[in-house]
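Board notes (copied after class):
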Amino acid sequence: MISCGDAQEYVPYGRDYIQHHPGEVRLQSSHSCPAPPHIDLLRQLNTVSLNESKDWWDVRISRDGLTEEEVYVSGTTMIWSRGHAGQMGCRQVIKCITCDSPIQQVAFTTFYTYPDQPTLLGESVPEEPTGDALPSICIVESDTLSVYTEDGEDFSVSLPFPVRKVWPCKYGIVLERQVPASEIASPKSERERLPLLFSLLHPLDEINPLLSKTSYSGSGGTAFMNDLTQQVVFISEDPSLCILYNSSNNTHTFWKVRRATTEENNVVLQSNLQSSHNSTSASALFSNMISSGQFNSHSPSQCQSRQSSPGGQMTSMSVTPTSLRTRSNVYTNVLTTPKTPFSQSPKSHMATLSRTQSPSLFGGQNLRLLSSPSSPGRSLGPLYSPRSMYPSLCNESLIESEPLVPDICLDHVWTDHSSARATKAFLTESSVGQKYMCLMLTQAGMLRCIKYEYSNDHCSLIFGSISCIPAKDALPIKALRMMIVVDGSGSLSLYTGVSHVCRVNLSGVPLFNSSLFKDFSSLNISSRLQSPSTPPYSRHSLLTSSRPASAVDPKFDLGLSPVITEKSALEGSLLDDPGLPLSSAIVALRDETNYRVTLEHASGILYRITLPAVTSSPIVKQALGALQYILPRESALLLINKWYATRNAPGSGDFSPQSEWTLFSMMLLSMMGYDTDKLALTSCPVEASGSCSPLVATKKFRAAESGSDSDWEYMLSSAFHMAAGNTLSEILGLQRVGVLRKPQDDCKATANVKAPLFSHLPSILFALHLVYEDFKLNTLHWEFCSLLVTCLHQLASDMRAGQYLHHYWKDFPTICPLNGAPTQVPLEEIQNLTIPAYYTECPPHVLGHLYTIMGGIEVEPFPYIPEVCTATRNLVLLYCLAAANCSLQGIPFERFLLRLNPSGQRQLNSTEIIMDLLCKEERESNIHEKIVLLTDQLGLTVRDIQLLSPGVSLLLMNAQHMCRMYPPQDWPASAYHLIHRPDLVAQREAATKNTSQSKDPFNIKVRCQRDPDSVQEVKKVSQQLKDEEDGMETLDMDMLKLRWREDQRVAEVRHMLCSSRAVTINITQRPDVSDHDFLEEQERHLYALCIRTMSLPVGRGMFTLFSTAPVITETLPIPKLNLSGKAPPRGTAIDLSSIEVPPNMDMWPHFHNGVAAGLKIAPNCGEIDSTWIVYNKLKGSLDSPTEHAGFLMALGLNGHLRNLATVNIHDYLERGHEMTSVGLLLGISVAKRGTMDIQTTKLLSVHLECLLPPTSTELDVPHTVQVGAIIGVGLVYQDTAHRHIAEVLLQEIGRPPGPEMENSNDRESYSLAAGLALGLVLFGRGGEAAGFTDLNIAGELYHYIEGGHKRPLFGSKEKKSPSYQIKARECMNIDVTAPGATLALGMIYFRSNNRAIAEWMVAPSTPYLLDQVRPDFLLLRTIALGLILWDDVVPTSRWIESHVPTTVLTHVHRGGNQSAPGIDYESMHQAYYNILAGACMVIGLKFAGSANSEAFQILWKFTRMFTNFTKRSVAELAGKSTIETCLNVILLSLSMVMAGTGDLDVLRIIRYLRSKIGPTNSTVGYGSHLAIHMSLGFLFLGGGRFSLGTSNMAIAALLIACFPKFPTHSNDNRYHLQALRHLYVLAAEPRLLIPVDVDTGRLCQVHVTLKFKDTDQYKNQMYEAMAPLMLPELSKLAEVIIEGNNTSNRYWTVRFLENDSTWPVLETLLHSGEGFAVKLKDGRYPYGDAPSGFQVQLAHLLTQDKSARWTIKGSVLEEVSGCSARLVRTLVGGSSCQSPLTFEASALGLSSSGSQMPFNVGSSTAKDNSLQKLEDEDEAFTQALVTIVFEYLSVGKPQAITTWLAALQGVRRVKGLSQKTGLLLWQVKLIARAAHFLYCLTSMSIAGKDAMVEDDRTPVQLSPLVSPEQALSLSKRLQLITDSWFKEVNEEILRYWKGDFRKPFSAKCAFTLLMQDLPINNTALKDIQDCSNPLALLSTLRKAKVPSTAISGLVRTLFCS
């Protein structure tokens, strides 16, 4: 009997929670039809139930395995909660859902996203579910199945038939149809019967019938599952099994649940097709089905309302069975009736039934109350029968419908003949792995256990023997691999398989007096017992029934109570005993989880108990696992059952690992026949003095007041003193006290050879020995080795295994004497034992095995136990892989490992020890990469490696170190974690998260991971300056401060672009000026400043581009455009009230202000829909429509206007607001650019006469709207070469003015827009436009450029009457058509290098021809020439001046006496400057965003030249306006080249140019300020995050936005529509490389090396810079290296290579805005945070000089600052002035010389010598510690520090003869050999050309993790200690070799033999002392197989004696 603690009364959490629930809340729909008057009555009747219990619940273990989940249902409400098992008050509600109708069932299941439905096309169907898993909860109502996924999705599926129960399965759910009584009463033929089972693989799929396949059924064995006598009992997911009960023959059939194949579906469908020719047609069949009411006739699309709380809202969907995911040509719901407006939803029969799942008194089945056969008729009524009302409709629908194709098939595998139906079924597994299917037969009172196992291919099940256990109820306890059973007496018992383990003793459960029930045999108590919500007994319930017992109708009671039929069982179990045992009142079990189960008491109260675990100690767990594997199943089962009962016996409390092992070892030895009372193996004194059986209560003696000598002797002889005495003495610095051993005479005993485990003595010894060796590999398990070795020592002594005794003696000489323990097994019995084949006389030694492998010696396979000795398996495999250097796909496991295969067990393939290696070696990996990959595949983590022993972990740590610098790019994330590179993991996770939308041009996000301190600071500042918002608050100030941390350029830019504050009028009143005149002067100055202010929004929009994600619940704030001023010193407000200003001069500036505000929104910020866009339409302000118009255009530029609904577009356009129409049309066109969207085309065509039919009504469309529409057409059809659109646009360039005012004003802008649109459509298609030959596009454009007679018009313009306002000539007006045609020609023939077309654009070479061309047209021609000859563009002065004709160069800059007659010098200079400006703009376009130094220098040169022109009289030669325009063009070109760089030189010249205001600068108007602030915006584009691209569409967008004709005033749109200035957004690219520290999440700085691709002009170009860095275009880069300089870098290197898997990662990281993660090296400061000065130089010297680290003193470290120094000072004890003794005691807590320090005795000289010796030792230890720590931190190897610290401390403990000295010595030996082994591995990698390279020129050779010098130093340090012992143990060693064991051996002798590699006693070595001849000695040693490393020690021992 075991004790499970106090039982706690259990009340479902949902029952208490529902008391506070508001109940059902019905939301009235505004569009819902009025409900029928009787609907409320039907709803109330639906809630009526004959059973009083209305609530039920279910409990399961959570997916994390740590918590429990409870689903509680009461009526229409479901409460889903989660909490820790056994802890009250720590539960939380996950979801609370209220439905419309009572909930019948709740089930947890897992759907899959794409289950790969079977098709009729012969495609194979995968056996396993495919797609992503969707863990869900299903709620079943009368006619609806609601599915809620864990991700928040909500599906509602209409049920076409009443559902009895929903069963989760492997693929989804199985629905069991409720068969009405009428269908059972009138059985039909097999072909006419309806299917019984259906499946649903996804909530959006069809509900399809199931197939069944048997060997005896008709139609080839495959048919629909339509046997009405079958009923589902159980369905499991693993194995995929279904159990059906056949009521006709009382059999349970077992079926395999699998996917249906195409062939099976074809057979069934063809069979049904043939049956349609029979007398009973399918239509009649389904009509009968419908009329009988078997299926609901309601509409499947009926809306289901849900109220969910408190977990938040879910996405609600109303799903019909026929959905978008179904196959339209295959799936048709033939089971649903035609939808008629008269059909009603009859309530299912299940609505009137109780779904209470509280078990009955005996856990009986929940029988349902079936309605009478006439109930369907009453519910539908004969009048509303669908068959009688619409027979033709039914027949027509049935004829057209196609059959449902089954998804799942049931394969019959087994039939079990039982006497009754199983009330429940479950799977269980015994402790030894035997699997059982259990059927609970409640009526028979037994549990039927059917044994099964998998076949060899694991594809089928094999059923075996059947056993029966008397039981009333049972449940599996999976964590224990047992099942808990309620036997016939009502007591609890535990079974593992069919073996009884023990009975369960309960405490805390009240006694149940059953005598009360003797006189109440007819009392129905089931309802009370079944519903814990009601009190178990009340006064009226205990009264005697008025009916006699004979009058009870069993049939009636069967319907009311599920358990009344079991009255006989009740009388036999409870009514016979007046007084019952404590646990005999348990009647049912439920709600099992890992260790917990709910008991239902006979009183109706529920109790929750927790069963104890099998073990809590790792040593017992490992030992049990090993013995379970090695022993036969019967013996292992006996052992486990005995142990569980022994450990958890009543009265036993919590165990420590030591006490639990003592109890286990005693029990094990007693089962092996030992007399444990005479064994000295216990480590607990209390347990040692008593009996070995825990069931015998030890007597308690009164403690004596005074002690005795026996107490001291008992303590000295205890195992606890044996295990921990030396350690305590060592720590406390006390003298060691020896162990007092008992006389052997008292310990003599004889073992019982008939014990059950005695025959397995060799197997047990070998298995426990392998566990012992496995524990040596983990430092946390070293404590268990000393516990385990005592038991092993006893077993080895009885086995007379001398080599095992020597092995244990060398490891623990103080615990295990060499002579062995007193034996209890006679020798003859040992000789009679059967020795297994795997047992070896030489004990396996894992540390020695690894030591031999590193020595290059071939070794035998090492034995191991699967799933037990995992550390042994992993390390042996890794070391063998390193030594053999074999391929990962061809690891010879049998060569390295020997898997134990005990007799009597099925042999398994040895390769199953390793899971499938997923790594695919596309390239040859070096040895270190192989080790890391294999480590990852073996499942080892960083924590596991850190816990390994110091000597064995070096190989793994070294491989991590060697791969950390340049790891391969195709590794999994777990492998990167192994090598401590979380930065690479973060990069790939971020890239994967954003890869789904990587092709979307609007996939640009905002960086949201900011410094928390900065976020708080921003919030404070935003609260203070909320009223003074300037629109630039959303900038990433963390990044800006890090990028430009040395100046205030960002603050200066914000000041220059601020338009929300009043400007300062800083002029002085002269004495002769009156106040009135001075006020006018101030207003005139204010007007000049306002001209500049009105141009600021364009630049501000560029500065804040894509910098924020808005709050959806708020409107987007738009900063005001303040055109007022203030006069110092009092700040008097000044406005423009006294002077005359142009009307509506701020209209377009307000438009730009709205665009700037909208451009702050990032494209991919989500949740911006049509509602929010309309919500931002402000009311009440005169400027709001204009600003909102700009806001709409901005939303189009960032892609959000795609979400605007069509109805809202109509609402905007019908208002007729000109600015709104322009912004909306341009925004939609940009959002749909390049898509040729038909809806957008229609929208634009309404505003363009050229795209309307000739008979259409003429609309009065404003001119600016037409311009916006024509450019919108070009955007929608950009780069499509659409012929019709191109033809229309070509004609629109030369569109003549029409009648009235049509196309009379600002014709130039329309013609230009048409030309630009034509260029967009045919950009770069000039050389390949074969389909446009008949249009002669080039000729027509040349005609528009050069002029000539007009050509006849075609189309709708052919019959247009001439204009009444403009007198048009017969010739072409090139002043209107030339700009658009010129740029269109250049865009069409972009990069075509067509010399013929280029000649048209060359400037005229004679003065006469030059006078025929306007100078500003020469600028456009030069641009077009550069676009055509794009490949010839180079950033040199020679290329720029090559465009200037020789005639112009001859006469330019000549005046006075040098002037020639007849030459117009003004025209010459204007032509010269315009040509220069055009060439500069071409350079700006080609090198946009590149920051090319040559392009910058040449543009900077011309910018300075034109700036100086404004100060000299040279400007008068060409005119100041020409100079100003050319200067603006060159400045824009310069800023385009330096876009996003924030260059200070450009910023200074911009600040100078924007300061030119007032009357003295009359030529600096609105257009000049617009160009200047656009240049400023380009310089800081997107807050420094964006730059400009040079793709085809980017160049086109820049050309449109920077058109070199600027407006003269704020409302000027004559030559160029101002709204087009914002199209620069299409050329913006996020290319800022933002490094983020992966550990802190803060931004940081790193070194970046960029390598460019080779071009014709540039070769081998590269440069280095500090990130954050604006990258050039990725298409021009070949490689990006982060921290490539291995000698001085502080972060780990990251490489991005073109044409590699890393390149898409870089692209995605740039677009995501989250930055790329970098990892700071250990012991390094981030850039900018490190201290400077002498200390840094000293630290650099110490880390670079390899000799300095051996001589550096601790005092020197005080002068060094840094992480390394601080760690060293911490480890060595703080300040260097601290005394050695204080350092020893405080820092390390170790004693270097044990207890030999003479503090109290001896002379002062002896004290001084001892102190001096101790001080020298401490100084040497400190020196070694400083050397190791400083060296390994300086080179980035911190993981080796712990290994070396453990080794150094081990050396000190060895000198003190610690108990772990044997293990520590092996660690030192392994470290010393590992140094040489790792050096060989590194040399092998370098020789194999696997060395990592820093760049193409300098190879980087990484040094191994273990320094050979340090390893040699450590080895020598330990050798000094062993040499000091040599003289003491020399005689013992000789005696050991001679086999003289009469005297005990000291621990120093054992450790000396171990350290010197001296062999154990060997018969071949007994006579070596007599060998005086060296050759004979060597021959003897060779025969004895003495290792070469031990020869020197042997010789020294022999000849020193």
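Comment from the instructor: The radius of gyration is 46 Å. The longest strand covers residues 408-417.
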